[in-house]
Amino acid sequence: MKISVLTLGCKVNKYESDSIIRNLLDKGYDAFDKLEFADVYVINTCAVTQEAEKKSRQMIARCKKFNKNAKILICGCASQNNFIQFKEKNVDFIGGVAKKIKVVDYIENLANNEKLLCHEDIATLPTLYEDNMQAKQSRIRAYIKIQDGCNNFCSYCIIPYLRGRSRSRSVESIIKEVESLPDDIKEIVLTGINVTDFKIDGQRGLLILLQKLDKFGKRLRLSSMEETLVDEEFVKGLKNLKNFCPHFHLSLQSGSEKVLKDMNRKYKPNDFENSVKLIRKYFPNAGITTDVIVGFPTETENLFEETKIFIEKIKFSALHIFQYSKRKGTVASRLKDNLPMIKKERSNILEKLDKKFKEDFIKQNDFGKVLVEEKVGDYYVGYTENYIKCFISSKKDLLNKIVDVKIESPFNDGALATIFEKNK
Predict the structure, then answer these.
(1) What are phi and psi of 356, to 5 degrees?
(2) Does domain 365-419 have CATH number 1.10.569.10?
């Protein structure tokens, strides 16, 4: 039986999909993550925006084009949010966020030729971390899920309602997974719905976890962070790690104090700026990227201008720009929305800034260590520790190697780089 497990949305979803694949492989099935012919498709859905839910529904039709008789199994945030939208598509299984691994049991029953009707299993969201998944890792970089859920309840975000309250994985479980990683994995990325809220015995624990993982000698990277975690003790502790990659993805969302308040974010622009200054005090060459939402209901033209000015002041290394998407059930959904053309216009303005920031950051960097992940055309491609995408021309096989490079100039969506031999 051929089983395709397809993922929409975040890295946490991808980790959970890879866990399903690993479980299926262990049971002897031909399981993979490509959209191609299969007997069974598992679609791990996303609901962070209306567009994400739409793409989750559309994936059903895309699967049917490869095999109109295939069984379709649904799980994830979009089905947790509204399972009816998938029931109307005549799928074979609908699960939610909790107990995703149960899709494997359903597949086992299919393999045993049991005649199954459409089964809905939208389980109650757990209050403790569900530690029953471990991902099938790639050859080069391992994503390790350390946390789930969120307590922030930002006024625009539906995820706390779908993922539940914040809960942390045990340090022992995380270390056990890291110990099981193949030797050729060179980098670990810690991921979660809100990594900032990772706790050990109810107390802030992210730095302690990183200190324990530093001993494994693999590059360490954080997928994202909240500004509220950044203080002198934390950043100084990161500086003392041997293998930490100085790339900080700090979610901003808006540079306007009023809009941040309306979003129910827990900081002011001045707080965010002070956190960036602290990071650059210890990591002058750090890559600092961010998320920005444009067109929030209370964002006027003047307030958007405040965001633009603030972003220019910070000089990020890259921006991730999102147009506000109304999510039913959130506080912001009760407010009058901005017009789509206004959101698009503001997004275009920030996209131009993003291009400039990326080029400026590349020009500020002369050298770096690149973990080479793939070959694209004539170039080997990978990322520096501070997250510059590098294209390297070489006659030698560089795949899965960490190489010293000289960063030459902006190129494609990253930088052109050449091998730099330190001893010469």
Answers:
(1) -65, -45
(2) no
